[in-house]
Amino acid sequence: MKKLIIFTNRFPFDNAEPYLESEINYFDQFEEIHIFSLSVTRQMEARNLGLENIKVHAIYYSGFIHYLVKAMLLFFQKSFYKEIIYLLKQRKLNFVTLKNLMVFMGRTNLEKEKILNIIEDKDIINTNDKVILYSYRFDHLSYLITQMQFDCEKIVRVSRAHGKDLYEFRHPNDYIPLRNYILDNIDTLFLISKEGYNYIKKHYPQYDHKYVISYLGTEKLYPIKVSKNKNDHLQILSVSNVNIVKRVDLIYKALNNSSLPIKWTHFGDGEFFTELKEMIKNKNPNLKINLEGHVNNNLIKRNLQTEYYDLFINLSTTEGIPVSIMEANSVGIPALATDVGGTSEIVEDGVTGILVNVNDSVSNISSKLITFARLNEERKFLLRKNAKEKWEISFSASKNYVSFSKKLCNLLN
């Protein structure tokens, strides 16, 4: 029997991993699917996935003492000492990297024990099974799947690498624990962008035979309202958390710096949301703002179907590949975005949208907005058409996830 076992951080609880919710609809080649959802708290509610062949197992967060006790096991693990030697050679051994390594491995020791107990108690894996162990993030979940052994016909370990879980420069001391160990012990690493593929191949070339590009995708949205609103405002949309990486404050500054009449709608909240609400109190009168805060992803999709937007904006300092732009493109909304991570794989400058340098000033970004606003209707229509075609070719969920599911099954053959 073909079985897929997925390891995630909190999915489908709370608001975690909204895009995995689409991916799991395409795993019908597997007879059983189990999701182990880690770091769940008792207060979190699970979303209804509506799929009968999927069973969700919550691994609840344990207190600090439990993790500390399991961390003591590190001193009996050879991989711990090998990683210490690696850190010494890289001149990266310090209190921070040592702490991160111990948390990384200690957390895995505790969660592995809970997961193995569930698998044994519920008889999830049998001797005649072919099993995929799939970590949705290239973090400690990837290490977790390397630590589990089962008596079955075949077992394959795979992981997906996105953004923060891939790029070491996004972490203190440019360090994510046990990269070499993990890559040595998994079978395939799926990268969500060409940029991510090039990055991992450059830094860990000895494992390049394990790297496969596999784009994420979004569902086809059918616009219910397609006509432009009868007003002179430029309709701008952004969707993201409000944090230091996403730079929603920079979006506001660029829009506010423009003399254009603009209506800006933003979905998402985060650590700097309160500061953003204070900041916009000083906006210029030409700028209308709707800060919607956090809403369910299905409501955002509904908004994309029922409201007209001229342009989507993303000014992140770093990205994997922005799924929010995929969703916008699927209904023909072009994007203005920073040229970081895999963004240029979806936003082709002058073809499907506008790319700006990550270090561009507020005035330069405002200037790009003004240039876009002054395009004739024929040129704007072409951008919308190209954006939608790009999505249909490269970022359709029905294409990408069917292909991904087939790749997983082929690994079992």
User: In angstroms, what separates the terminal alpha carbons?
Assistant: 12 Å
Average pLDDT rating: 93
Overall morphology: globular
> How do the strands line up in the largest sheet?
3-2-1-4-5-6-7
What's the number of domains?
2
For the record, what CATH class of the largest domain applies?
Answer: Alpha Beta
Hey, roughly how much beta strand do the residues contain?
15-25%
Give the low-confidence spans: none
Report what the structure shows.
The protein is an alpha/beta fold and 413 residues long. The chain has 2 domains: 232 residues, Rossmann fold, CATH 3.40.50.2000; 161 residues, Rossmann fold, CATH 3.40.50.2000. It is 38% helix and 18% strand. The protein is built from 14 helices and 13 strands. The chain has a 7-stranded parallel beta sheet with strand order 3-2-1-4-5-6-7, with helices on both faces. The protein has a 6-stranded parallel beta sheet with strand order 10-9-8-11-12-13, with helices on both faces. Helix 7 links the parallel strand 6 and strand 7. Helix 8 packs across helix 12 and helix 11 crosses helix 13. The model has no long low-confidence stretch (mean pLDDT 93).
